[in-house]
């Protein structure tokens, strides 16, 4: 997704409008840039599509869900998480990740996946806040005490 911006000259005269990434404002993080009035060539479209393909998750949402169901039914000693790839491993994948850092997974970690997953680090694109258990309990108790039943937390995976 992009936003339409306008670049204004130093004296405030005639600006030129352009599209840039709506999430990352630093071109080092997302290089998308397109003048509003420029025509996009076929080669540019193909290059953008190839870049988007390279950034897509390796599985669809449904495939991740099916993997989770299979993983959940595994015996405890076969439940492994690859910290390098940030993925739950099915038994057939263990050998392919043998050179990676893997850990066993508990039922408590499956209920709270943010304890397994590595937080995103780029504050300019992936701002997030991971509450400690103490902070989370304080917020939950306070909100429940005030009578709130539903809360939307943006940028707070835990």
UniProtKB/TrEMBL annotation:
- Look up the signal peptide feature and give its range: none
Q: Which domain of life is it from?
A: Eukaryota
All copies of domain GRF-type, residue ranges: 1-39
Alphabetically ordered keywords of this record: Metal-binding, Zinc, Zinc-finger
The name of this protein is: GRF-type domain-containing protein
Organism in which the protein naturally occurs? Ataeniobius toweri
């Amino acid at each position: 997704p992009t936003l339409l911006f306008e670049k204004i000259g130093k004296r405030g005269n005639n600006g030129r409008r352009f599209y840039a990434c709506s999430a990352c404002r630093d071109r080092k993080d997302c290089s998308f840039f397109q003048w509003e009035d420029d025509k996009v060539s076929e080669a540019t479209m193909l290059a953008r599509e190839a870049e988007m393909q390279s950034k897509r998750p390796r599985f669809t949402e449904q495939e991740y869900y099916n993997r989770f169901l299979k993983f959940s039914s595994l015996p405890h000693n076969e439940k492994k998480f690859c910290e390098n790839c940030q993925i739950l491993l099915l038994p057939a994948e263990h050998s392919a990740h043998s050179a990676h850092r893997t850990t066993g997974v508990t039922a408590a970690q499956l209920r709270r996946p943010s304890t397994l997953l590595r937080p995103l680090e780029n504050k300019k694109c992936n701002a997030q806040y991971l509450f400690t258990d103490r902070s989370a309990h304080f917020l939950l108790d306070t909100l429940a005490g005030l009578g709130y039943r539903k809360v939307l937390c943006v940028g707070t995976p835990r």
